[in-house]
Amino acid sequence: MASHPSWLRPFLYWSLCVNGVVAVPASAQATNPLVVAGVVADQATHRPLAYVSVGVLRRPLGTVADARGRFSLGLPTSYDADSVRFSLVGYASTTVTVAELRRRVGAGPLLLRPQPVLLPEAIVRATGLQRQVVGNSANASPVSFLFDTNKLGNQIGQRMKVKRPGFLQEVSFHIQECTYDTLFYRVNVYAVKDDFPADNILPQPLYVRLSRRQVQDRIVIDLRRYRLWVTADVVVALELVKTLGPGLLQLTGTFLGGPSYALEQAPEPADPKNPKPKGAVDLKVVAEKQPNGGPWTKTAGIGVGIDATLLQVPR
Q1: CA–CA separation, 98 vs 169, rounded Å?
Q2: Is 57 in a helix, a strand, or coil?
Q3: Could you read off the pLDDT of 77-99 as tens digits, one per residue?
Q4: What region, left, alpha or beta, does residue 231 occupy, with left being phi > 0 and alpha being psi -120 to 50 degrees?
Q5: What fold does the segment set 26-112 form as a domain?
Q6: Domain residue limits, the chain
Q7: pLDDT of 282-308, one tens digit each?
């Protein structure tokens, strides 16, 4: 199903919010949303788990737990039959109904069971592998992606077209403009299923923390220690998992470099204190929604300034 997204402009805006409690759509607010708060912890050690993703299935409503495992989510009573999923790389996801979550959070932490990610075994001769860069490597462009309202759990991703099997060595992205003193994002690498991001193939969470002075050049993230063997396309995405305060992060973008992907939580009402720059005009670009109520949208013709380097088997 196609729609005309409001976030795509000459300076392409993807919204991400800094609030720990997710704002719900106006229709849900009319049903009196109640804030559900709690802590997510490791089932084996009972230690809090940082930056666990929390989301209502098949609805654009979610958030991310903080560094101490604490989360809060505004859930209207009309959602009581819906399911909330708690997920983190390296742990088995846990899904509970909203009604059950209301009953459980006051009785102690919600526990996730450790579940290591099993990487596919690859037996490849080290000699003869060929270096290949895929994605979008431009460091300058008239098109850019702007994280302008910062909502926890939102993501921007770029599809990497893998034509031959190989080891994923590194990913990089280029920042066109940054007004934050410090950046903190999670990097996700997703397998592609039915043309949309699916399971995260990283064996553990991967975070990038940078000062403003460190973003002058292209940001390179080394993945060699994971020995990720990929045989098909993947999506590399940046996810906001920590409140950064007022500011913006603007990534390089490109026409004809897609597809790119966005995962956006429920949109906020317009904020008069944080207006869009003068001259911003909506473009009528079609974004395809993920089938069956999935959280992602795909824009075929627009790319994000994210690339990946692979060591591939020879042709």
Answers
A1: 40
A2: coil
A3: 899 999 999 999 999 999 999 99
A4: alpha
A5: Immunoglobulin-like (2.60.40)
A6: 2-16+122-312, 26-112
A7: 444 567 899 888 889 999 888 888 999
